[in-house]
């Protein structure tokens, strides 16, 4: 990459844009489901809501593999981390490990984005609560 190349786009900001489109489509399908009179229209709208919801779940799962490189991406990671925390509080034991792993990935990604220059969590505090060697992204860094 030369100094004249544009900076790579933030992958989380791109996923945020994708999520926005999907959520708008899901809202429209939800309205169509409520307003439909014929059973086949209700069924079609319900399937659309379910498919879009599943796609949003997959998008959220993909998002935890990336670190934000923009404020929009960092904000999206915060929203997703909050959703993971809510899910962790209400999920059954079979899902708790997966949700906890995703939540930790979001939090470490946010920390990496926010720690710039001299702005860092003091080493003793970090070592006590959020050790760098337990960063799930460290294995992905190359």
Report the C-alpha radius of gyration, rounded.
19 Å
Give the CA-based shape: elongated
Q: Helix- and strand-based class?
A: mainly alpha
The total beta strand count reads 0
How far apart the termini lie comes to 16 Å
Helix content: 55-70%
Helical run tally:
5
Number of domains: 1
Mean pLDDT: 84
* Strand residue content: under 5%
Helix and strand pattern = HHHHH
Uncertain segments: none
Major β-sheet, in short? none
Description:
The protein has 142 residues and is mainly alpha-helical. The chain has one domain (11-134). Helix content is 70%, strand content 0%. It contains five helices and no strands. Helix 1 packs antiparallel against helix 2, helix 1 crosses helix 3 and helix 3 runs antiparallel to helix 4 (93-114).
Write the layout of secondary structure elements.
Blueprint: H1 11-35, H2 39-63, H3 71-90, H4 93-114, H5 123-129
Helix pairs in contact: 1-2, 1-3, 3-4
Question: Summarize this, please?
Answer:
The protein is an all-alpha fold. It contains five helices and no strands. The chain has one domain (11-134).
Feature tags:
5 helices, 0% strand, elongated, single chain, 142 residues, mainly alpha
